[in-house]
């Protein structure tokens, strides 16, 4: 397959977490991902000098890495970590118990007995009002161990040898042990930018960037562009400032050049958000190529990429070539291959995952003409994915690069590919949208998004009205246009730190009003996201649905509880998960479960329900199990309570898994519910 090149882009991004005038960041993610993801991703690659990869650094991330390495900032968790455990106040202890378990419990807490035992002592269910009492039950030694472990788990495995004694000891840490961790963290952070710069100069990698504050550029140019993909969208305002989009692009490139010494030829528009109106701005800024999602190409040329049983898309000859419009080259990422790494392979054995990826590449290669050159773009988050893998993805990443090298898969950077390729395909239209659903709904589609946009619009109007030219004020204003605020506003995604984002957004706006001598509007003192997120509803009554794989009549699942998989999200988001929702309920004899899927035929998948309580057992949806099930338009299952050994007041905990050709492709969270003797009541629903 000498005519096919694989182009991998790892995207690194963190929003600006700083409050105006405050050197203490409220969230630790820049520091944590710096010691867990950024440097080691490069060091893994350098072991395989024949493999070429592209890394995208957002300007907001570069600025904050530089602040950390020059001691211009700290974060609140670091302040609490550094403080002597025997000097912690009750308020600080409560804060530690609340925030020092913000990690993937399965991969980053449970494997470490001491850390896990401290989580169990605090309680997996976080009840803020109970934390003062819980804090008083923790000893000084336990708080110190918690301080240490909350940092140890974020250090990438390839760096742990320098402090391996701490991992081996596991508990009973001393205050001076913190100094070893701080020294190692600083050492890692200080190397990041320089190591990438040197490796770029050596020719193994391409470095690219994004707009300054990571805004959705098409929405800055004209917010009405969102109505093209969503005609039913009602916008009570119009934001139309292409000059802001231009500034975001130019400032982003300026920051990138400051740290790496050259202007990038490639550019990843935030969230893959593109429109035809954006392209001239990028061309004027000297950008050679951009990338976005395959669905944008499909809608731009009015077709769809449907895949066969091997994952090979039709029209592969169109997808795996760069296109051109307005003197800029555009690559369209294979969203299935990208999502396999980001969301699927963490649940597979490393060997099986790598074998699956390589076979998919080979199948794509066989489908393409051997007389033409093709490129397969795989573009995904290069930091958040790994905490869902065993050992921070070390075995997968090393095995992945080794397989690419051993099997002689040609890898390339995007710029490198274009040096020996004449782009012939030309677009007459570029459909406006992002990598999520080929639309902008996440960032402007809900009332809370629009409240925030109205705040941005009103503030901008005020800056123009008062003829404000202060660069620091405008820079802080541009931060308000970042995509991350709008990611958390609305009910699509949930995070325990959503309130922090809400507060930061409003504090930035309040600071600007103060600096220009204007009375801030009342809405800036009111949270944009005032409500708690509810992903699950309670069963209203007993149910006895007909198990036929169809929605036989509207009310058969009406009284069931429901878990909304579509709204379950965090910093990462699948293009389209298989499960869209789960219904659950009981009658006197059976546990009933229904699962819906998103725009796919469920019949091609194998399903398994894995019970964790009251006993561990697995029930495959196939012949040989004492259950009734049917998979057609939906999946419906009836499981006798007797085989679960469930009593009238016991709870039940389960996960639903889906496999395709033996590879797990999706799963629900661990779902927990209880059964009362005379009525079903869902209590303490936990995800």
TrEMBL record:
Boundaries of every Glycoside hydrolase family 57 N-terminal domain copy: 7-420
Keywords: Carbohydrate metabolism
Cited Pfam families: Glyco_hydro_57 (PF03065)
PANTHER family: ALPHA-AMYLASE-RELATED (PTHR36306:SF1), ALPHA-AMYLASE-RELATED-RELATED (PTHR36306)
Family indicated by similarity: Belongs to the glycosyl hydrolase 57 family.
Name of the protein this chain belongs to: Glycoside hydrolase family 57 N-terminal domain-containing protein
UniProt GO molecular function: catalytic activity
Highest taxon listed in the record's lineage: Bacteria
């Amino acid at each position: 397959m000498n005519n096919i090149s694989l182009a991998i882009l790892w995207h690194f991004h963190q929003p600006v977490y700083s409050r105006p005038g405050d050197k203490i960041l409220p969230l630790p993610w820049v520091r944590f991902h710096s010691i867990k993801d950024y440097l080691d991703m490069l060091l893994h690659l350098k072991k395989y000098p024949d493999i070429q990869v592209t890394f995208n650094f957002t300007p907001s991330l570069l600025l904050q890495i530089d602040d950390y390495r020059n001691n211009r900032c700290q974060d609140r968790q670091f302040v609490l970590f550094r403080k002597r455990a025997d000097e912690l106040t009750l308020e600080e202890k409560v804060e530690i118990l609340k925030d020092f378990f913000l990690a993937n419990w399965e991969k980053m807490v449970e494997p470490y007995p001491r850390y896990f035992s401290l989580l169990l002592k605090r309680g997996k269910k976080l009840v803020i009002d109970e934390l003062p009492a819980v804090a008083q039950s923790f000893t000084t030694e336990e708080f110190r161990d918690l301080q240490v472990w909350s940092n140890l788990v974020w250090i990438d495995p390839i760096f742990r040898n320098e402090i391996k004694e701490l991992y081996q000891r596991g508990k009973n840490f001393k205050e001076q042990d913190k100094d070893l961790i701080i020294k190692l963290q600083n050492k890692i952070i200080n190397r990041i930018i320089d190591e990438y710069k040197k490796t770029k100069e050596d020719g193994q990698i391409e470095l690219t960037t994004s707009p300054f504050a990571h805004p959705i550029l098409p929405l800055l140019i004209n917010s009405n562009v969102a109505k093209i993909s969503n005609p039913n969208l009602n916008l009570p305002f119009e934001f139309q400032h292409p000059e802001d989009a231009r500034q975001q692009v130019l400032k982003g490139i300026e920051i990138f050049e400051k740290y790496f010494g050259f202007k990038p030829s490639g550019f990843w528009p935030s969230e893959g958000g593109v429109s035809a109106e954006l392209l001239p701005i990028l061309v004027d800024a000297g950008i050679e190529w951009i990338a976005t999602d395959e669905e944008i190409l499909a809608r731009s040329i009015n077709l769809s990429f449907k895949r066969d049983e091997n994952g090979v898309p039709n029209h592969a000859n169109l997808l795996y070539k760069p296109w051109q419009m307005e003197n800029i080259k555009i690559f369209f990422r294979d969203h299935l291959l990208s999502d396999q790494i980001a969301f699927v392979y963490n649940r597979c054995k490393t060997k099986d995952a790598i074998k699956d990826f390589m076979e998919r590449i080979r199948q794509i290669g066989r489908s393409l003409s051997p007389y033409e050159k093709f490129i397969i773009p795989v573009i995904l988050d290069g930091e958040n994915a790994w905490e869902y893998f065993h050992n921070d993805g070390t075995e997968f990443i090393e095995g992945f690069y080794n397989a690419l090298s051993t099997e002689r898969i040609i890898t390339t950077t995007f710029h490198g590919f274009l040096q020996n390729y004449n782009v012939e395909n030309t677009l007459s239209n570029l459909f406006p949208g992002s990598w999520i659903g080929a639309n902008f709904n996440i960032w402007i589609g809900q009332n809370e998004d629009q409240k925030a946009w109205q705040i941005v619009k009103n503030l901008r109007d005020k800056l123009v009205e008062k003829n404000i030219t202060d660069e620091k004020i405008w820079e802080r204003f541009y931060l308000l246009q970042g995509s991350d605020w709008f990611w958390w506003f609305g009910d699509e995604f949930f995070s325990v730190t959503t309130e922090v984002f809400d507060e930061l957004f409003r504090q930035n706006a309040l600071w600007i009003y103060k600096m220009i001598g204007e009375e801030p509007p009342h809405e800036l003192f009111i949270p944009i996201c005032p409500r708690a997120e509810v992903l699950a509803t309670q069963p209203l009554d007993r149910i006895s649905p007909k198990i036929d794989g169809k929605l036989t009549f509207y009310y058969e699942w009406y009284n069931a509880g429901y878990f909304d998989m579509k709204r379950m999200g965090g910093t990462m988001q699948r293009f389209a998960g298989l499960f869209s929702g789960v219904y659950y309920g009981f009658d006197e004899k059976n546990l009933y479960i229904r699962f819906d899927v998103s725009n796919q035929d469920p019949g091609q998948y194998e399903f398994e329900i894995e019970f964790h309580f009251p006993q561990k057992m697995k029930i495959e949806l196939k012949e040989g199990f004492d259950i009734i099930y049917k998979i057609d338009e939906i999946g419906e299952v009836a499981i006798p309570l007797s085989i679960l050994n469930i009593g009238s007041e016991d709870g039940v905990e389960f996960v639903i898994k889906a496999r395709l050709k033996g590879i797990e492709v999706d799963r629900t969270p661990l779902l927990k519910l209880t059964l009362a003797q005379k009525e079903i009541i869902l209590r303490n629903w936990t995800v």
